[in-house]
Protein: Chemotaxis protein CheW
Organism: Roseivivax jejudonensis
Amino acid sequence: MTSRQEKNGISNTDVVTFQVSGEVLAVPAAQLREVLEPASITRVPGADEFVGSILNVRGSVVPLADLRVPLRMPRTHEQKDRRILVLELPLEEGEIVVGIIADSVHDVTRIEADELEDIPPVGTRWPPRYVAAVGLSNGDFVTIPNLATIFHGFLLAQNGRPNMHAAPGAVPATEPEQAQCVSRLS
């Protein structure tokens, strides 16, 4: 087992598998709060394409993320099996609750450490920093996105702090906004 797999907490763990744009992805089952059928989604004007909508989950406003944006996946047409995974993500900034769009949700399965590998250096369109590992589950390749890195980069970009690893499409802040943010942190 590599230190990368240990660090991302994905060795010998139960994961929820789901499909996005024809690819099978997985997230640790411990992060899953619930799976919802598509509900009333509110688009936020001027918001980044990655997290451009919000939804009401039992009285709480939850941002809705589209992993197709940072993972450079093609958009698909509406799917009858589309679901929203509501996740609790531990980030450096603290735990956040976020919804993720899935074309379908498959099952909960166990992935062992010896089934996981780092992303290959060639043959993938995904930025390597956004992929924690790839592996096999029930004969299918499964990609485990590094949600902490994806959302951390997005949050940094949204807070106006310079970050070279921000999610694609994130709008950088102007210099005065960056100065205000830095002065508040000091």
About this structure: The first helix runs from residue 3 to 7. Residues 39 and 120 are 37 Å apart (CA to CA). The radius of gyration is 17 Å.
